[in-house]
Design a protein that fits this description.
Nucleotidyltransferase, domain 5; TATA-Binding Protein; alpha+beta; 309 residues
Length: 309
């Protein structure tokens, strides 16, 4: 019997020959811990083809700009779909999938929050009618109201919010030494918490770094899905819903913690953030900062330097 790993190698070998036959340049096949991969190139455009092997069998993933011509062409070759050689086609929203997004990665104060939302055609229609859209287009009041609607529409077991409070965040960052690795861990955790409650075979998330980081974390949890990481992913309703749920939890933290400390806590990482951090440290002691801020930010290093000066 041919081992699953050998089957994966034979598959990517076949894919390589098919791509070469379509006048695409292909790299040597590389073996990774969980997959085989190669790069396909035409002129200046590139995509990666990865064939994963695991307990559930073989899965093939294409990584790259989903709106590029080469992505469409390679997808057609690999999955036997029609080729679109003219204008690159906008990816269509799947009929059911999981969308993930995060909030707080650019804020000195507060947690990192990652949310995942599963939606099918029925839920997608309801989310659209509820006003779900890119959270960056909504103010805090709208976020709060639409978040309530999302919770009414999407059952508990179809949505999950992972809240990494500053103290835990700082511990994890010390372990990962890299924000994108931490993000991959958080996204995979949110996916894991709902993936087995539905039939989704696709996950869409905003692109925050090297796709392999999230794929690796997902595979560690024995989850095999078609993972799409793309810029402006909030154009997909389930991703937009996840972004709203994540931001709602962020807003809640800022209001709750601000009330407890009797100070308005600003978002972002500008000068006003530093001023507020100094005020809080003077009032409650410097030991409070690791509980409410992200220590790897330059803001904290700047505050430490000012103390020494």
């Amino acid at each position: 019997m041919i081992k699953i790993k050998d089957q994966a190698y034979n598959k990517i070998l076949y894919i390589s020959s098919q791509l070469t036959g379509q006048a695409l340049e292909t790299s040597k096949i590389e073996e990774k811990q969980y997959n085989y991969e190669l790069t396909a190139q035409y002129l200046e455009e590139k995509v990666k083809v990865l064939v994963y092997f695991g307990k559930k069998g073989i899965s093939t993933i294409i990584q790259g700009d989903i709106n590029s011509k080469i992505y469409t062409k390679v997808k057609g070759i690999v999955f036997g779909e029609g080729l679109f050689d003219s204008v690159s086609k906008e990816i269509e929203e799947p009929s059911e999938y999981i969308g993930t997004d995060e909030s707080g990665k650019g804020d000195f104060f507060g947690p990192l929050v990652i949310a995942a939302v599963y939606a099918d055609d029925n839920l997608l229609t309801k989310l659209k009618l509820a006003g779900v859209k890119d959270s960056k287009q909504l103010d805090d009041s709208a976020i709060k109201n639409i978040s309530k609607e999302i919770k009414k529409i999407v059952p508990n077991n179809y949505r999950n919010v992972v809240i990494i409070n500053p103290e835990k965040y700082n511990q994890l960052y010390e372990s990962f030494k890299n924000l994108n690795k931490l993000l991959a861990w958080g996204h995979s955790k949110a996916i894991e918490n709902i993936i087995f409650n539905n039939k989704a075979s696709t996950v869409i998330s905003d692109k925050f770094g090297n796709e392999e980081l999230l794929i690796s974390e997902v595979l560690k949890k024995n989850i095999e899905v078609n993972l799409i990481q793309t810029t402006k992913a909030e154009r997909f309703l389930a991703v937009a819903a996840a972004s709203i749920l994540a931001r709602d939890r962020m807003i809640h933290w800022f209001i709750k913690t601000g009330n407890e400390l009797k100070v308005t806590i600003p978002k972002g990482a500008g000068d006003v953030v530093n001023i507020t951090a100094v005020k809080i440290a003077l009032k409650y002691g410097a030991d409070i900062l690791p509980k409410i801020v992200k220590l790897h930010f330059k803001n904290y290093a700047s505050l430490s330097q000012s103390k020494k000066g």
